[in-house]
Amino acid sequence: MDATVKKFLHEMGATIGEALQEIAETMLFVEIEAGPLSTEACDVPPEHCAIIDFGDGIQGCFLLVASERAAIKLAGALLGEERGEMDADMGDSFGEVANMIAGGLVSRVESRYGSVSMTPPERVEGRHPMAGEMEWWRIHHGFALDGVPFCTEFFIARECLLNKVS
What we know:
Layout: H1 3-28, E1 32-38, E2 48-56, E3 60-66, H2 68-79, H3 88-113, E4 116-118, E5 122-125, E6 136-145, E7 148-157, H4 158-165
Antiparallel strand pairs: 1-6, 2-3, 2-4, 2-5, 3-7, 6-7
């Protein structure tokens, strides 16, 4: 991976971090601690994952990856109440948190990369399907809410990225 590709990925990761911090402050009313950016796989136990695919200006996807405890905290923050376990409402809220973060990313990059379409969030329990795909480049950004880690991952199609940075 050359320096230009790494720079693009780190810029996207930082942009996701900005979007997440804005959502945390204005919609969830919580403080999120930002952790490291990496091109390696997210090391958070992937008990819950919300996936949003991008098309048009960027071909890729955004993932919000969380343990059960982190997913409950994020969903509960959106709902404005603490709950002890994931149920249908909590699952929908977790997906909506991912949707808001992805929307914040899109609003920040469309002026540079053109219109970006998004799918509704798809929730998956367990490991997300992108982890082993070789035609994608990834950036993951670690975060914590009340000391409980979670992460975001952004995958972009190699061909799309090479067109963006060349």
